[in-house]
Amino acid sequence: MTQAILFYLYAAIALAGAIVLVRARNLLHGALGLFATIIAIGGLFLLLGSEFLAAMQLFVYGGAITVLIMFALMLAGPRVNSEDQPSRAVYWLAGIVSAAFFVAVALVLWRTEWHLSAPVVHDTASIAEILFSRYVLPFEIAGLSLTIALIGSIVIAREDDVLGDGTDGSDAPVGSTALPEDEGGLA
Amino acid sequence: MTGLLAYAWLLPLAPLVVFAIVLATGRKLPKNVVAGMGIGVMFAIFVASMGMLWAVAQGARFEGSVPWIEMKGVVIEVGILVDPLSVLMLIVVSFVSLLVQIYSLGYMADEERFRWYYGAISLFTAAMLGVVLSDGWLLMYMCWEIMGLASFLLIGFWFETEVASKAATKAFMVTRFGDVGFGLALAIMWFSAGTFTFEAVFKLVESGAWAGPTLVVATLLLFMGAMGKSAQFPLHVWLPDAMAGPTPGSALIHAATMVAAGVYLVARSFPLFEANPQTLTVVATIGAITAVMAALIATSVDDIKKVLAYSTISQLGLMMLALGVGSWVAAIFHLMTHAFFKALLFLAAGSVIHGTHTQDVREMGGLWRKMPWTTAVWVIGALSLAGIPPLAGFWSKDEILLTAFHKEQWGFLAVGLVVAMLTAFYMGRSTFLAFFAKPGATSKTDHAHESSWVMLGPLVALATITVVIGLVNSPMFGFAFGAYLGEHASGMNLSLAAVAVGAALAGIAYAYAMYQRGKANPDWYMRNRGIAPVLTKQFWIDDVYQRVIVAPTLVIAGVFRGMDVAVVDGVVRGFGKVGMVVSALLAKFDRGVVDGAVDGLGNGVIDGGRETRKIETGNVQTYLLLLVASIVVLLWVFAR
Amino acid sequence: MIGLNHYLLLGAALFVVGLYGALTSKSALRVVICVELILNAVNLNLAAFSSYVAPKQAVGMNFVIFLMVVAAAEIGLALAIIISLNRSNDIDAIDTIRRLRG
Q1: Which of B30, B317, B357, B450 fits a disulfide with B291 by CB distance 3.0 to 4.6 angstroms?
Q2: What is the ipTM, given to two decimal places?
Q3: How close C97 gets to chain B, by Cα (Å)?
Q4: What is the mean pLDDT of residues A109-122?
């Protein structure tokens, strides 16, 4: 019973946060919505019996990623916060497609017979056991790819003349060539 | 020495490694290093082959295989077989390849893609060694195809020219057609015999466990593969065009070795063919038709390489004839001697082309003063091809005629004699025109010069071999060749030999009268309306292909194209429109670019193909939308 | 009693909301954040499957960890790209970035 109450509570927070993220005019509020969702999902991980994942969720998402997003928001300046709104048609189209997707997934869930087993509490040791035995190679590769991504982001975001050719190392032609093309094309 | 045989599988790998190195290093290695690798490896293979010859001649034999594919209850093995026949082929292939590579040092020296040339030659040699060493048809087929690829690469070596690229494609397509037969034969073999190794299948055929229509069809299909590779009528059309490649490559692949692989295939599978007299008749008949037809065409061709190409086709036909009348030893003997003297002729022709920068015999003449060495070796090769004793060609051709004589196949014997005469005639014709006749008005021989020794060396070596090699199956050496391959000596029939030599001399004399003494000028065929068109058009076979195969294919392609335009483009247009509608919706807020959409819509109706790209708006969100919509549709269809 | 389907439905709902946001938002930054939400939804599904369907082995839990790594890498790169675009071209609106156009 407690479990059910907690589940619905967390689910409500998560959904509300998600909707705030999508609908908030100010992106800063949206980011806060995401933060709420993340915390709620962390709670759900606890309900699912994995305190390690819950902790990770808080550390990685709730801590690092949210802070990163906030940071980017501050850096990108005020323009990001005042976006112009897309047309009604886009809302409708996206809404219909999203709703159809949800219905389709729900139907699939409805019809599938799961072979359930009794839930087990996953302590940190049991996760670590499999992570460092069976999945040790993916683990290493994940670490490597994270390093690569880190270096990549530094190179991309650097402001000074990285390439030594007078450009600032970022992909300068992206917008400048794309904008004029819009006139003739179909968009 | 016997232990050496077990390492024979290394032989094909060595040149393959050279090819891999060339492929990997590109232009980084100096030319000399690349050529040195190719030549060094080939020399080592040749030496090893000679060692194996010694061992095999004393009765040693090796067969070893490893499992390659293991499935439920099915094991397919690949392995090597070292027996007298394969060792003989090893020696022929490695020796000719060695000399050709040395020769190419001079001939290809100024070539931009020098390294690539050596790489392709190495690839080819590796594949050919694989063909002759394999202990079953499956591995043979694989190497056979690699060989075809190497041939394609070398014909298309100067792919910048349209002639070369078209010739390469043609060669590939035509030989592939034959290879389809080979492949089907393998399938039949698998279902009927359940194995691909020579020994096992031979046993099944001998015991009668595999007989009947499937065996007949399998042999006919195997022969089809041989026809494609060995340029037998009606699949011979690719070989003359293949002369667009570099001459030393032609000497190796399209004269000495690869085209003989078809003969080798039939000789290797001979127990299968022997069990089917009807297939043997087909083989002999095709061989006879090819031999006569190609010899006739060769009398009218002016391109010195094409003369040799048609001559090769004709001689391969003769080998097929020998197989068909029942003597694979005679066929292999002729294969060996032919490999040496035809490589000699090709390399000599290359020397001429190198010196005069023309391939047209009408533009040559009197070359013997300027290129004495080339002339000397060419004459040796030509006399050998014509069948003048004691040169190699005499002995092997005599062996074929003798087989037909013993088996009382009088028709095929007559064909052999006619071919002998025609051969002597066309070789006399090109020899006199190019080397001895007075240079004509169109002659380009003023600046002709003798080639360097790096090219002449291999020529002299091949000429020496051509003089002596035939003797291995002569009474003087007790028909050692036949004994080596395990067949009883068929002896020698002096009167038959005399008739054959007489026919050859008659051919040479006629050529002398016509071309040296000027009784007829080189345009004789052009003016003679009776046979000229037939010969200069090569019996219209290419035209028939053009009309019967190429043109209908184009028509069918046209029909499909029409369907494409009507149906597929319609669908594409539909997609285009969907994309446009979606895009148009997004476009409304896109700084009012609506007229662009309308324009695009108009164009979409006119030109559907161009419109599909409009789905690619570049807008990630459109992609995402379409992606999710597609998933929903798929879920609806499959999970409903 | 809360069962597997509850979690899966919640995951689907969060996924769809994130999808809707990614489809409708004009700000590249918001799209990236919505993608994070989608990844979270997937994580929830994986964890639910892990504890209900195959609780003996913690495979799904491990997948969640890997997905977190991927998400971290993704957001780091995406933010770097956005900042870089923003600085050099003064754009953030995602529909003006269309180099992929055919």
Answers
A1: B317
A2: 0.85
A3: 7
A4: 75
